[in-house]
Structures are given as structure tokens and as C-alpha cells.
Amino acid sequence: MEEVMMAIVIVGILFIALPWLIFHYVTKWKSQATLTTEDENLLDELHDLARRLDDRLCTIERIMTAENPAWRSVACDPAAIGLEDRSIAESSLSATTNEPRRIGR
Amino acid sequence: MTPRHTKFYRDKRNGRWLGVCAGIADYTGLDVTLIRIATVLLTILGSGMTIIAYLIAGWMAPKKPIEFAAETPEQAKFWQGVRASPARTVRDVRSRFRDIDRRLADVETYVTSSNSQLAREIEQLR
What we know:
heterodimer, A: mainly alpha, 4 helices, 80% helix, rod-shaped, B: mainly alpha
């Protein structure tokens, strides 16, 4: 009697519980979000686009740094330029020095 | 149809025999030597399962498409990141775009403000 019960339990575990467990995880794994081909192509394109935009922006930033090394500080605080500009305008009226104007802080 | 980047391929070109270890290295981004040593160790310590697994992988997995041979190390690294965690890669790309947006905004601010400065100077010359 005892052995029969044992056999039923083992067979139950082996043929019902184990496949159940495996298929449970298989379905879970399959339902997980994965990349489709379109997603993959889109991601590839976006990555490439980001890289190219980055390169172009680097070129522009380099050109602007060559023109005016202090352009970043100008871009940081637009309010400061307005204040700074007036003094530049006044000083340029009084003294006509040809030195490069320092804009920004 | 273009070959998928997120599938496992065996890398026969860089492989020792069937290219499974090189394929795993290419897939995960780990060092080939490390994976080979791990394989050999598993074979010695464990049973013959590793050899069977190797043969099955070598039989099932397709060869690496010829298109992927030309990809740069930077691209290979990018796809390894995608395979490891697509969500993180998407966030990375988004942060790159945000960075570009911020820098472009700086440039725009400078260009527009220096234009108004130019306009003021012209105004003074009149």
C-alpha cells in the first residue's frame, strides 16, 4: 500500500508537476518583451543617427570655439548678455579700442 | 530579410573547431579564452554533457552571416549591449539624444543672441 502511494506520488511529480513547471516558465519567458526585427532596425537607425548628429554637433562646436572661445558662457546666461551688452555699447562709444570684446561673465 | 542581431551565431571565422565558443564570446562580449577555459574545465570536471552541448550548439546554430563580419568594434559592443539588456540600450540612446538636444540648445542660444547683438550694432551705426 505504502509503495503504491509512493509510486503514484513519484509518477505525479515526474509526469505532471515537472512538465507543468517547465511549461510555466517557457510561457513566462515567451511572453516577455523581446525585440522584433522592426524594433531592432529602428534601434540600429536611432543609434546611427545619434552618432552622426553627435559628430555634426562636435564640428559646429569646434567651429564656434574657433570663432569665439567664450561662446559657451554666453549661451549659458542670456540675461547676462543684455546687461553686459549695454556696457559694451557705452564703452565702444567712448573708447574705440579694437580689442576683441569679451562677452559673458 | 536582414539577419537578426539578437540571435546566437557560431563564429567559425574566429573559432577553433565549430566556432561555438567564439560565438558565445561574440554574443556576450566576454573574452574567448575565458569561455574556452571554462568549457575545458567543465568537460574535465563534469560529465560529457559539455561535449554533447557543444555538438548540439554547433549543429543547431547557424553560421555568423557574412554581413556582420564588416561591423566595427563599436557596433559589436552596441549589439552586445542590446542582447544583454534592450531596455538599457534604449535608455542610453535616449540620453544621447537628450545630450544632443541640450548642446544644440546652447548653440541656438548663442547664435540667436549674437544675432541680436549684431542688430544692435547696426542700429548704432545708423
